[in-house]
């Protein structure tokens, strides 16, 4: 890795170490969730981004890791002399074991059939967990406490944050090193042309089982960190929405670059932390972001950033600054229009407004939104979001044409071959 990239990563790590003590407990907890989601996404991306295996049931290994860590925490409470900072090893071992068994059967198929098998395995855990009282604590789940070790009480969220940071950095570096090994290159070969790998004499099925197990092992570490942070877990960790969330985060961040899933996990986790208290429609906005990214940025945010970094020397940034700023303005106007329209519809079809209509004897009373009163039957109420969408769309179309024209100019210098990027392409 070039020295420039190492310096950037060192600066980011320094910020992650130095800033949290100055934040309140809610932000510290949010950063813990960001780190856990990032590790989960990196482990998942080992399958989809590098091996080309789309798993719809990776929550199974996340949940298994969480429950394994909690059982070990209970044993530590009962007197087992085991260091608290090493609790994630239980999640790693459980994820590896379950991943080897599940991966053996799942990797017998490929494509959509592989995805359906992984989904079925996760649903099997989700349906059995409430009935297995000894293993998963039934519907109420399992709870335990973090025990002190070597003067560290692990009673504060800050201590939990640094423990999580250590494991996420260690596992992240481990996954990065994995991609640089010959087996990591074999993983990419399986994604690109599995038939050719077989012709070269490799056991493709055994290789995919190992890849699946490594991904499950790191996912188990992420699950154990979740259990350590919350000190509890229940069968909801095996739910479909947990698997779906990591899929969304990985694709939005960009599965074609190593650190792309971290971008997606950070964006979605902070988005839910900041927006969920402001509106009930925040899940809709998340889904809309995913759809728009897949339509207009199929390589994800990280893929777009990596593309710009690779072509940084062949672009005239003085010419691009204006169109990019114009595109930003257009995007903000469209966002304002969508938010205005979504929140208006949410209010009009909400329970509170239904009671207001009953009090008005079936009429359409005015409603409060963004600190102002709006008439549901008024032209202005619907004209404002329409104008925002039309003006924003027109600006965005114009900006996109100018950007395309600059990118397609034939007089640009050719980018240097093999230039490494900070985001770390997995190609």
- The general outline is globular
Number of strands: 4
- Taking strands numbered 1, 2, ... along the chain, how are they ordered across the largest sheet? 1-2
Figure out the total of helices: 17
Average pLDDT works out at: 90
**Biggest beta sheet attributes:** 2 strands, antiparallel
Radius of gyration (Å)? 24 Å
Helical coverage, percent range: 55-70%
SS strand fraction: under 5%
- Helix-and-strand structural type: mainly alpha
**Topology as a string of helices (H) and strands (E):** HHHHHHEHHHHEHHHHHHEEH
Distance between the amino and carboxyl termini: 15 Å
Poorly predicted spans:
412-422
Annotate the secondary structure layout.
Blueprint: H1 3-18, H2 25-51, H3 59-77, H4 88-106, H5 112-128, H6 133-136, E1 142-143, H7 157-179, H8 182-192, H9 194-199, H10 204-230, E2 232-233, H11 240-253, H12 260-275, H13 282-296, H14 300-310, H15 317-348, H16 351-359, E3 367-369, E4 372-374, H17 379-407
Antiparallel strand pairs: 1-2, 3-4
Helix pairs in contact: 2-7, 2-10, 2-11, 2-12, 3-4, 3-10, 4-5, 4-10, 7-10, 11-12, 11-14, 12-14, 15-17
Describe the structure in your own words.
With 427 residues, the chain is mainly alpha-helical. The chain has helices spanning 3-18, 25-51, 59-77, 88-106, 112-128, 133-136, 157-179, 182-192, 194-199, 204-230, 240-253, 260-275, 282-296, 300-310, 317-348, 351-359, 379-407; strands at residues 142-143, 232-233, 367-369, 372-374. The strands form two sheets. The chain has a two-stranded antiparallel ribbon. Helix 2 packs parallel to helix 7 (157-179), helix 7 packs antiparallel against helix 10 (204-230) and helix 11 crosses helix 12 (260-275). The longest helix has 32 residues, at 317-348. The radius of gyration is 24 Å and the shape is globular. The two termini are 15 Å apart. Residues 412-422 have low confidence and may be disordered.
């Amino acid at each position: 890795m070039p020295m420039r990239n190492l310096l950037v990563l060192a600066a980011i790590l320094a910020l992650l170490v130095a800033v949290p003590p100055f934040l309140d407990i809610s932000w510290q907890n949010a950063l813990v969730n960001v780190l856990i989601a990032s590790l989960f996404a990196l482990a998942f991306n080992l399958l989809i981004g590098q091996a080309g295996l789309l798993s719809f049931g990776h929550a199974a290994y996340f949940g298994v890791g969480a429950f394994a860590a909690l059982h070990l925490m209970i044993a530590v409470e009962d007197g087992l002399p085991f260091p608290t900072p090493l609790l994630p090893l239980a999640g790693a071992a459980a994820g590896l074991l379950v991943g080897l068994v599940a991966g053996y059967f799942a990797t017998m198929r490929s494509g959509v059939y592989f995805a359906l098998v992984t989904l079925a395995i996760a649903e099997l855990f989700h349906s059995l967990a409430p009935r297995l009282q000894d293993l998963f604590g039934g519907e109420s789940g399992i709870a335990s406490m973090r025990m002190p070790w070597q003067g560290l009480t692990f009673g504060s969220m800050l201590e939990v944050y640094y423990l999580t940071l250590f494991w996420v950095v260690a596992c992240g570096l481990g996954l990065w090193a994995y991609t640089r090994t010959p087996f990591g290159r074999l993983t990419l070969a399986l994604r690109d042309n599995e038939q050719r790998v077989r012709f070269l004499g490799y056991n493709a099925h055994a290789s995919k089982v190992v890849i699946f197990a490594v991904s499950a092992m790191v996912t188990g570490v992420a699950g154990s960190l979740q259990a350590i942070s919350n000190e509890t877990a229940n069968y909801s960790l095996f739910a479909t929405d947990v698997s779906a969330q990591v899929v969304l985060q990985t694709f939005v961040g960009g599965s074609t670059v190593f650190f792309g899933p971290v971008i997606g996990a950070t964006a979605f986790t902070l988005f839910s932390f900041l927006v969920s208290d402001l509106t009930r429609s925040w899940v809709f906005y998340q889904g809309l972001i995913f759809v728009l990214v897949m339509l207009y940025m199929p390589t994800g945010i990280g893929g777009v950033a990596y593309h710009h970094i690779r072509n940084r020397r062949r672009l005239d940034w003085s010419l691009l600054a204006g169109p990019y700023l114009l595109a930003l303005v257009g995007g903000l106007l469209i966002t304002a229009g969508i938010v205005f329209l979504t929140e208006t519809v949410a209010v009009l079809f909400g329970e509170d407004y239904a009671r207001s209509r009953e009090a008005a004897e079936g009429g359409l009373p005015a409603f409060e939104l963004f600190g102002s009163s709006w008439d549901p039957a008024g032209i202005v109420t619907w004209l404002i979001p329409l104008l925002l969408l039309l003006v924003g769309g027109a600006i965005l179309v114009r900006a996109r044409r100018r950007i395309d024209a600059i990118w397609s100019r034939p007089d640009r210098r050719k980018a240097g071959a093999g230039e490494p990027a900070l985001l770390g392409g997995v190609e």
